[in-house]
Design brief:
CATH class: Mainly Beta
Number of strands: 8
Structural class: alpha+beta
CATH topology: Jelly Rolls
Number of helices: 3
Radius of gyration: 19 Å
Number of domains: 1
Strand content: 35-45%
Length: 150
């Protein structure tokens, strides 16, 4: 006997998708801003108990990453190292806007992170936070958040 795929499913077990975005304003050319609280709010408002949240940056000179949010010296060390490894005024850059380094840094970090959601909360390690990485500031930026699950 053929049983449809949705047989026995309740309205509550159908996957939901919740999309939101928020703005942020950066103050320095290269900085990392903790956006964990903003993403937590979106996850809470989604009313999704189990699933995943994707945090996405729609900019080519910025990125999203997960790292330690307990000690601000970690962020300082990261930006210092990035600026030493990938300097702004490196000889040979061809892009005319003087932000080639920003594009390289953004590509190395990536434009999104995906975090599991369990019991309506993000599953992050004790010292982990979600960071918006600005590499060409100061600017007004947008962060997109999508929560999917049941």
């Amino acid at each position: 006997m053929w049983i449809p795929a949705c047989a026995g499913m309740t309205r509550e077990s159908i996957m939901k998708i919740h999309d939101e975005s928020f703005q942020l304003h950066t103050e320095r050319r290269c900085e990392m801003t903790d956006i964990t609280k903003e993403v937590e709010i979106v996850v809470c408002q989604s009313e999704i108990e189990a699933g995943e949240v994707t945090v996405y940056c729609p900019h080519t000179t910025a990125a999203i990453t997960i790292n330690e949010n307990a000690d601000p010296d970690v962020l300082y060390d990261m930006t210092m190292t990035l600026n030493e490894l990938i300097p702004q005024n490196r000889r040979g850059y061809r892009h005319a806007e003087q932000n080639s380094d920003s594009h390289v840094k953004s590509s190395l970090f990536g434009c999104s992170e995906r975090i599991m959601v369990k019991n309506s909360k993000m599953v992050l390690g004790t010292w982990q936070g979600i960071f918006f990485c600005e590499f060409d500031g100061p600017r007004s930026r947008k962060v997109l958040v999508q929560v999917r699950g049941i």
